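Q: What would this complex look like in 3D?
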Amino acid sequence: MNPIQVSDLLFSYGDRVAVNNVSFEVKKGEVFGFLGPNGAGKSTTIKILTTLLAPKHGEVYVLGYKLPEEGKEVRKRIGVVLQEASYEYSLNVEDSLDVYGLIWDIPRKERRKKINTLLAEFDLEEYRHTHIHDLSIGMKRRVQVAREFMHDMDLLFLDEPTVGMDVIVRRRTLDTIKELASKGLTVFFTTHILEEADYICDRIAVINKGKIVAIDRSKNLKELFGGIRTVDIRVDPDDLGFVLAEMRKLDSLSVNVDGDIPGRIQIATDKPLKTFQIITQTFEALNIKPISVSLEEPSLEQVFMNLVDKENRVVR
Amino acid sequence: MNPVIRLIIRDLRATVDKALLTVQLAFPLLLLFVSGFAYSKLIQPFEVQGRLIPYPAFLAAGAIILSIMFGSILAGSLVWVDRRLNMFQQILVGPFTRGQYILSKVISSTLVGLGGAVIISIVALPILRGVHITLTSPFIIIGTVCLSAFLMGSMAIVISTFVTSEQVFNALVNLIVFILMFASSIYYPAQDAPSILRFIFLINPLTYSVDLLRFGLFGMWTSYLPYEALLLATEGGIIFFIAVMRFRNISI
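A: Here is my prediction, written as structure tokens for the whole assembly.
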């Protein structure tokens, strides 16, 4: 059985349906991205998977245990980095890790070892004796993520773990998570930073208004929902006039010239393969060799906007 | 290690504010020395089984129970601290049940209350005249102190589940403490009060605690004592059960 197996999950707060018949699964060793706008149902889903809320309908299995009945078993084997900052402000970084290890029943000797490893791994060594309340938001977040690794787990929930982190720390944190996933850890990951999801997630689910609207690999999502894409062509500026004149004869192409970069042509298309064929034929007919022809990948943000924003606008 | 013990150690290491512990001793000490000695000019020592008990010694039992009450009320504020710092959620997604979480809070606050009671007892030693210790006294004293702390800690947790903010919790607890304190036998014996006041005294669990402690310390027997002991234990159990039930349904 997959580490997470959800079918027909439904949860409502009174009359307001937060999660509406959602089904998905997360495979072992996978980093699974769960994206959606505010109020889409992400946090409610995470609260159900981490046993804080009981589903109203549907079947939820986490690590093979049925929820909510076997929640206690699940909690022993998961790690959770909450979206909200959670700390004991009276402690310094080292003591914070130590107390967290203690509540997870890690023996004292092992705690000492793990603290040293994590302080080094998360680049927190120089803050070892700094009180949590004296740390910046990003640093606190780093401690919160590091703290979760005080104990072993089979499944890790990361709810916007990089909020407030600077670019370098964020990349380092994501790489650490990636490395752990490559060793078999399953990660359930939410973020509003879509480049982050693109970088780290093996598969991504997009949830909107309580329903999953797409679920696939990032690459496939871009192909399916990326919408209009841009073919970028570079030619010798001396040939630009001939090429443009030929291309503008074709109604099927939407051609733009980049005034800032000499010899650059951009063609917007929703059928990149066909457009490539036409471009190739055009250059052959003119007997001109382009300097380069490339297809710009749509961003995950574009996919997200196409999936979520359009739907929400229609409803509005 | 047992999950409840782990959570108690966490509370004592990370959550209990050491400054608060000092402040919680202030009121019982004031009661003991200011009220005790001020009123002792007006209230004559009274006789119990041939021994003279001065008013400051009579009040000392009340001061010990008060220090327990202030310590136990900490249970409710510990929950609020955890909620404010989001550690409440963090712990509940860890290897614990909600019942274990509440029990740890009640025991942590009981330990804090007991610590306060020991300090007050040591400070009050010079004025504890007329003490009559028998073989059963230690059991009665320790039992009373533990049951009182358990009941009051559970009560504070129940209150914390009904209110929506830490400020409301603190205001409500102050009000309840004030009512419990003055409508109890801390200052005066219940049996000598007017009948309406006596009724209020006798539904106040603080009265049971103080009366039982006075019995343990001075051998002050009243016909209510067996019922008071029973009520203290029963109410403690019921309120703890309510706390667990309330916590099961608390929204996160």
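A: To summarize the key features: Residues 167-182 of chain A form the longest helix (16 residues). Chain A touches chain B through 27 residues (CB under 8 Å).
Q: Very helpful, thank you.
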